[in-house]
């Protein structure tokens, strides 16, 4: 890369990359502190952000923070960071009150008495989850985006991808976007990554198609620490057919049950909490029953209320796929990354002036397995805290030269990125899915290294967005494989079976 100093560089006090609840919260709080904020996002519509896809709701404490903390720790298989969980539960209700109720005036579902209609989801010991139907993310994100877009201190730029971080001597000074053929530099006093998860690394996911691990890859390539990347959470109840969609845990919280291909309820055989066991337990049980009996369905006939009336958005998705009955075929589906860019209680990474919030960040709250309806809450709490902290810095564009990316070779064949992406997804599905073994993890690493070499050969002279997304997906996949290979213990989402050598040894006895 050649380096040239921009004559009139674009600057912002705080630069936020990503437009989900975490990015919007960071932008809002930085603007409240008086910073000029630029929010750039690949998304062109709200449903391009993972927040818009969130169904169940957002957890509160209902004035019992110790109860929520205990549930988070239990769901994590005892691996969550207690101090991080303290930050979450101690700030939860204030953040919800401030942003969602007072600022955005979200109309959460209420009972006939005008009180909040709190629901319960798997591994929660109490009814404490605020929701709007089973489409809470949509009802939060769209007003949030409108509010942020109308704020006098915030400029929102859609359809803009960050390609690389601009760094100098261990400090992050902004990003290069794809607004120019050789990269458009934006310099900032502080940069906040809120780029979401990794669903696009798998064939079946509840995430948007552009969840390619961008923030994780850019941060890691710049030298930031990452952690807990082996903990990829699979939701146990996604529609089992083509075009999967999430069947919220609120359904089971309100009485729906899982049945196998023989019509039998089975979760009591796997966990004392039955259908409301932690996600990792239920997901593996569902997969086992599918293999043994051919099918698993979510039976909504046992709901306390009428399915179509209580959950109209989910019922409509079922009808769109020709499901008219009350037994919905389900299968596990990639849902959430519990690890990510390693951050502290303010979202600060190990690189100076770089923050990460939301699903791309590893706060320590989730450990090896996330408790339902804590993702929106974590994004909100850490977004506000990171935005406040990031507002303390002034932009210093004059001390760094941004690299020019090369864009000299012809465009790639039309299907190049798509075909490489299919290869990556098949590798992740087969070797780094719900269950893993050491030999398969090693095979995945070898395939992914070769794939990354092929991508690197092209990316040196081209700046196409889909090529950078493919690079980011491959880098993040390799990081997941490396983390999985370094952890031989089955914990939470990371379930390690026997390798070929162990199986052969056992068979010979």
Automatic annotation (TrEMBL):
Pfam families registered for this protein in UniProt: FAD_binding_2
Enzyme Commission number: 1.4.3.16
TM stretches of this protein: none
Gene3D superfamilies reported for this sequence: FAD/NAD(P)-binding domain, Fumarate reductase/succinate dehydrogenase flavoprotein-like, C-terminal domain, Succinate dehydrogenase/fumarate reductase flavoprotein, catalytic domain
Molecular functions (GO terms): L-aspartate oxidase activity
Keywords: FAD, Flavoprotein, Oxidoreductase, Pyridine nucleotide biosynthesis
Cofactor: FAD
Pathway stated in the Swiss-Prot or TrEMBL entry: Cofactor biosynthesis; NAD(+) biosynthesis; iminoaspartate from L-aspartate (oxidase route): step 1/1
Homology family: Belongs to the FAD-dependent oxidoreductase 2 family. NadB subfamily.
PANTHER family xref list: L-ASPARTATE OXIDASE (PTHR42716), L-ASPARTATE OXIDASE, CHLOROPLASTIC (PTHR42716:SF2)
Protein name: L-aspartate oxidase
Native organism: Natronolimnohabitans innermongolicus JCM 12255
